[in-house]
Amino acid sequence: MLISKADALTWFEFFAELPEDEPLLPRQQEIALAALSQIELAEEARIEALKADIPGLKSLNGRTLYVGDDACFPKGCRSCLLGTGLSAVRKTNRCNLQCRFCYDYGEMDLQPPIGEGFWEIGGTKLREEDLDLVFSVDQRPTGIAYVYLEPFMEIEKYYGIIRKFRDAGVYQHLYTNGTLATEENLRALGEAGLDELRFNLGASGCADRVIEAIGIAKRYIPMVGIETPMTPELYETFLKKKDAILATGLDFMNCAELHLNPNNLENYWGENLYMYRQGYLSPIWSHELTLKLMRRAAEEQWPIAVHDCCNRTKLARGLNLRAHEGGWFGASSYGMEFPVIPYAAFLPILGDDSFPFLEEEPLPEGYRPGDVVL
């Protein structure tokens, strides 16, 4: 069903008025999914056109795209996409910043604690000394990532467990906004055995002190890079400070496609949004800006790898993880992060004449506005 934009807009205006707890009937669901598919196909055509203009575009086993030096591509991403997946280690439930793109926006003070002296590993609450037991019974992951929320709020608690994973031969990377990084704690992380540090440079607005911290981190930690949701603000500020950032000696930049959930959707209300494979909901400009930045990196031959960590990459991550877990064919952890499709969020793109559908056809009888659609 190649629904037209006009018909899709009419129906989505109706769907947006329905109570959230009132499910659509089967034919209404067909209409809704047809409209989302039309938006997705039109956006994918725009993405393909942008990719065609990037010289030297590379693929990691068909699972993601990047440009630049192969040796600079983050090993944490290789573990995530090719190894036994991204195994999250969680400890800190606090952050010193509040970013409008954060998945926990507005709920920062409501994040439950892991528990004093505990770590959440594989969904299980464990103490540091329990790792010897886990290593004795479990297959060791190719890599783990320290996430949730800002580890540098209590970074001194991380050194011991990092040593444990280092001694077990597990590759480790950690995320930070960088505002609390100092030469002392960066040196301590390197000495403990951290393999890779990722700075969310967009969280601080590309602050000079964080750029300086990237350079300091590179003295002590083997791989250092940037990982931030790609937004217009980051794109503009990064290019203004590009020379200073590249001069730090960093290895990579992961350009994450911004995806929205019930916490941060309001911060981007009114933007043109699309849904990738009926899962992540994103502004269309996020992936497009990533590809524009990758083109510039390739043309100017930046001495780093720039990675397209888009929604498709997240889908590949989910498929890879489930496959390594012995899941059924096609199983994935990837999926929509809303209880129901937020139909009103798609009204701007359906009403935007500058975003045409690739192909349209009249709705069949029984699906037209005015018909009784069951």
Characterization of this structure:
36% of the residues lie in helices and 14% in strands. The protein has a domain of 248 residues: pyruvate-formate lyase- activating enzyme (Alpha-Beta Horseshoe), CATH 3.80.30. The relative contact order is 0.17. The protein is α/β, with parallel strands linked by helices. The protein starts with a helix and ends in a 24-residue tail after the last helix. Strands 1-2-13-10-9-8-7-6-3-4-5 form an 11-stranded mixed β-sheet, sandwiched between helices. Strands 11-12 form a two-stranded antiparallel ribbon.
CATH homologous superfamily identity of one domain: pyruvate-formate lyase- activating enzyme
- Detail the poorly predicted runs: none
What percentage of the residues does DSSP assign to strands (E)?
5-15%
* Average pLDDT over all residues: 96
Over the alpha carbons, how many angstroms does the gyration radius reach?
22 Å
As a percent range, the share of helical residues equals 25-40%
Instruction: Please provide the ordered H/E string of secondary-structure elements.
Output: HHEEHEEEHEHEHEHEHHEEEHEHH
What top-tier CATH class of one domain fits best? Answer: Alpha Beta
Strand order of the largest sheet: 1-2-13-10-9-8-7-6-3-4-5
Structural class: alpha/beta
Task: Walk me through the topology.
Elements: H1 5-17, H2 26-52, E1 58-59, E2 65-67, H3 75-82, E3 87-90, E4 119-121, E5 124-126, H4 131-137, E6 143-147, H5 159-167, E7 171-176, H6 183-192, E8 196-199, H7 208-220, E9 223-229, H8 232-240, H9 242-246, E10 252-256, E11 273-275, E12 281-283, H10 284-300, E13 305-309, H11 311-324, H12 347-350
Parallel strand pairs: 3-6, 6-7, 7-8, 8-9, 9-10, 10-13
Antiparallel strand pairs: 1-2, 2-13, 3-4, 4-5, 11-12
Helix pairs in contact: 1-2, 2-10, 6-7
